[in-house]
Q: What sequence folds into this?
DNA sequence: GAAGCATGTGACCACATGGTCATATTACTG
DNA sequence: CAGTAATATGACCATGTGGTCACATGCTTC
């Protein structure tokens, strides 16, 4: 946690530090991100930085926590908006929302991606300790609910399905990013929808030809 | 490509450089991996290093190419050993071989993982340029063949399925690594098999309850 | 104004980085 | 043996790092 001097700062200055740090951590790993750069870009002195934060890790955990909170807020508000549709629709929504999120908040998305790649164990575990629940449990809950409603085959391993969904969700975002780069999501909406439909179709019906067995 | 002086080296020295470099690049990103450390660990002088390699990138590309070649050799020999079983069995084999590979050649696997995370564009593209074909095309070929054999639903988007398989394959290895760490693969063989079966079951039959529709 | 306290500051530290280069050592050739 | 070409070497360079610290500035209270 940042020191109280940081929170006493005028909002403008505080925000300029935050956004400089977000940018730096979104473009670099924990190790290669530079405090010097963050200071330069946000226009504060090196000494001041250490008046606000205990050390590099302190800032890193703070920034990552902000990004995680934003993402959770985004998804849970999207989930609660919908009126409890079936699992399929929930999954479709999560995939599309994932794409939407990385288009709307590219900085936050980039932070998340950078974090998922993170090597430095101390940095990673410190963030997780702070961040609490992961998105994995979200999927697990959805799956369990769908099972209770009798919506999916009872023999399905919830854990395996959850892993599948998680890896798919990030794969979709990655694919979209590779394919369309930073061009608007709205422009390619149709193609995105089709692609997600294809994946969902495989997921729901399996790859085996219908009517066999 | 390393300079000819490198290939003139006695095999022992050459190998000690290679293995020191592999270790360093498997534990660090391109940027954070250290030439100094590689020199120290392999017992050569800094100046000698630059007699063998043009620069850091030269070494990086060389090492990564070695790892990729090894992986391709491993998989293609495994694929050709089998007598053309169905797609399901091919997929199962690839998943299991993926786990087996990371158990048998943890250094090579770690190199691959590190590469997939790589940030530095120049490093990444230089390796890809050298490495040629990716594993993605392997999946695509398998899918197309299976379609031609009428084994899977013609309506399935091969590209979507390929992406799904790719992301799943790496997810399986990652999950296994998280779950069992460096303990032997043989010990947990049963659990690994079960997990892969669960995933395959979802993939083949879909998540919808049987006999509905 | 004075005293006290919270903040701001940048020169500085020890250390590490990728890369160079003049020089020393070795190997080969006549 | 001499002479030449190949290779080995580590001090050195410019640049960067996270972090510290003595000091300067500003604000608040008496």
A:
């Amino acid at each position: 946690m940042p020191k109280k001097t940081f929170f006493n700062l005028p909002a403008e200055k505080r925000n300029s530090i935050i956004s400089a740090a977000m940018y730096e951590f979104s473009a670099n790993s924990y190790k290669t991100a530079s405090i010097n750069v963050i200071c330069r870009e946000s226009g504060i002195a090196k000494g001041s930085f250490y008046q606000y934060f205990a050390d590099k890790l302190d800032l890193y955990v703070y920034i990552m926590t902000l990004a995680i909170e934003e993402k959770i807020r985004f998804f849970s508000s999207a989930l609660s908006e919908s009126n409890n549709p079936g699992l399929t629709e929930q999954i479709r929504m999560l995939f599309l929302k994932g794409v939407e999120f990385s288009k709307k908040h590219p900085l936050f998305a980039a932070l998340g991606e950078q974090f998922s790649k993170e090597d430095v164990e101390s940095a990673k575990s410190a963030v997780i300790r702070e961040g609490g629940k992961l998105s994995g449990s979200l999927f697990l809950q959805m799956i369990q609910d769908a099972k209770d409603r009798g919506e999916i085959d009872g023999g399905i391993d919830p854990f395996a399905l959850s892993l599948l969904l998680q890896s798919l969700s990030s794969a979709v975002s990655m694919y979209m990013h590779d394919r369309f780069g930073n061009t608007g999501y709205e422009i390619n909406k149709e193609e995105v929808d089709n692609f997600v439909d294809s994946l969902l179709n495989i997921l729901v019906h399996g790859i085996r030809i219908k009517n066999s067995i």
User: Anything to note?
Assistant: Chain B has a mean pLDDT of 87. Residues 34-36, 46-47, 49-50, 55-56 of chain B lie near DNA strand C (CB under 10 Å from a C1'). The radius of gyration of chain B is 20 Å.
